[in-house]
Amino acid sequence: MTSKIQPCDAGIIRAFKIYYRERFYHYELDISSQETINILDAINLVVSAWRNVKQEPIANCFRHYKICSANPNGLNDLNYVYSGEDIRELENLIIRMHYRHKMDVNVLLDYPGENNECYEVQSIEEIIAYTVQNSVDNEVDDDSVPLESITRKEALQAATTLHNFLLQYKNTMPQLLSVIWRFKDKLNIDLKLKKQVAIDSSFTRQL
After folding, report:
1. What is the C-alpha separation between 102 and 94, in angstroms, rounded?
2. Cβ distance 60 to 80 under 8 Å?
3. Mean pLDDT throughout 24-34?
4. How many other C-beta atoms can be found within 10 angstroms of the C-beta atom of residue 8?
5. How many angstroms separate the Cα of 24 from the Cα of each of 29, 46, 52, 91?
């Protein structure tokens, strides 16, 4: 969908897609390539494919779409960006992939509606305003209930109640009892550390 957000690509991105797809399918068909393609491999394929898009075809695209001044000595044929041989090679690679539902090569390179002309390019301010408005429209009311604050003492009481219940339950798992017991010990330790004591409790009282 690149051409929809970059309407001035002038066919250059389509050429890049051809070279990238060729390298991608070659990678997938390589017998020695047993692992799934990773991000680094994909980046290397992108670099290699972009280097295959030469300077002269790019200039030809710019002249064809009147992005730059026409050069009387230059070609103005849009098909010069890539050759029919490139398309045929890509088609053969797709056939070798043995896809169950094979996509037509032209649909693969030019997704339906992707090449629709853009008569007006939005400014940065318009894009930001549109994005902000969509964010406001998509906001959903928060239905979540805030968690009630529970003290350690309340948690200890609940753990004790649960522990006593499990002792009476015939299908009790020993591992669960052990976990609750350790949890109660931890809470007891925390409560003792949090307990405030008077300063005179640190001194021995003389009789």
Report:
1. 8
2. yes
3. 72
4. 12
5. 9, 9, 14, 13
Distance of CA 152 to the CA centre of its chain: 40
Q: Where do we find the tokens 């409560």?
A: 191
| Residue 100 one-letter amino acid | R
Mean pLDDT of 65-78: 55
Q: How far apart are CA 167 and CA 155, in angstroms?
A: 18
- Summarize the confidence of residues 135-150 as an average pLDDT: 67
Q: How far is residue 20's CA from residue 158's CA, in Å, rounded to a whole number?
A: 61
Helix (H, G, I), strand (E, B) or coil at 196: coil
Q: How sure is the predictor about 76, in pLDDT bands with cuts at 50, 70 and 90? A: very low
CB 141, CB 120: distance < 8 Å: no
The predicted pLDDT at position 21 comes to 84
Alpha helices (runs of H) in the chain, residue ranges in sequence order: 2-5, 12-29, 39-52, 55-64, 84-96, 105-109, 124-137, 152-168, 174-194
**Residues 43, 135: contact at Cβ < 8 Å?**
no
Q: Which two tokens stand for residue 183?
A: 């949890």
What pLDDT score was predicted for residue 139? 58
How far apart are the C-alpha atoms of 108 and 124, rounded to whole Å?
Answer: 30
Q: Among all chains, which residue has been given the structure tokens 């992108």?
A: 46
- Dist CA 109 CA 116 (whole Å): 14
